[in-house]
Amino acid sequence: MPREYNNPQPYVIAREIYNKATNITPEPIREIGIQIIGEQFRQNKSEEEITDEEEAKHTDIIKELENIIANSKEDGLEPRIEIDGEYIHVSERPEIHMIVDKLRKLEPTEFEKYCLKLLIKLGAGDGTHTGNEKNDGGIDFIAYKLPIGGKDIIIPAHINSQTVVIGQAKRYTGNLITETDLREFIGGAMIQVFETRKRFGILTPIVYAYWTTSDFNPSARKFAKEMGLWYLNGLGLAQLSQRVGIGDPATVIV
Known about the structure:
There is one protein chain. The chain is of the alpha/beta class and 254 residues long. The chain is built from 8 helices and 12 strands. Strands 6-7-8-10-12 form a 5-stranded mixed beta sheet, sandwiched between helices. Strands 2-5-4 form a 3-stranded antiparallel beta sheet. Helix 2 (29-40) crosses helix 3 (47-74), helix 4 crosses helix 8 (234-243) and helix 6 runs parallel beside helix 7 (218-227). The longest helix is centred in the first third of the chain and has 28 residues, at 47-74.
């Protein structure tokens, strides 16, 4: 159902445009913005009022779209859209979009297991799904012995320390991850870090991972970068899945 927003901000509208755009041929950003405001953010306004609202926010919406594209590139992702002046078109490969859709259709527990399996595909020697355990502290998966530099890097036998990944998985379709969500995750992970280092050694490198099928709001993204968090949104997960040969996430869940 459409959401009730009295005044959706340009970033929110731009994020919806970025996620919902489907045309591979150029389409006016203005028209998509009007459609998004009318369909996604019901405000009991007339078509003329919705058009006026898009007009008032149009320049900022384009700026936010450009920021989203720039942030995606900075994160090592392939942006799903391209902008040419007042027009937008989808450059994303169809199979990536299909993987994102399949991820969002998984049950929350299935998504947690998928995240762990993806790490094992990346070269982790073993892992534990903890999301269904009591008092899990917000930790959904732990992967052990992830090779530093990737799965194709051979670690000499005398190097005992290998990365442990402690992560949380959020299978959302619309809710954006907030800075508060990330802070709570890091706080809850502290106990697990202590236990992990007792097992593998106090100098064991720990990676904090927060993966979601949705996305991160600007504040959360800034915080994640400052803290060195391994954060991945739905697009990032889909692209990583394809790189390691997972076309259908459901096939790796046991």
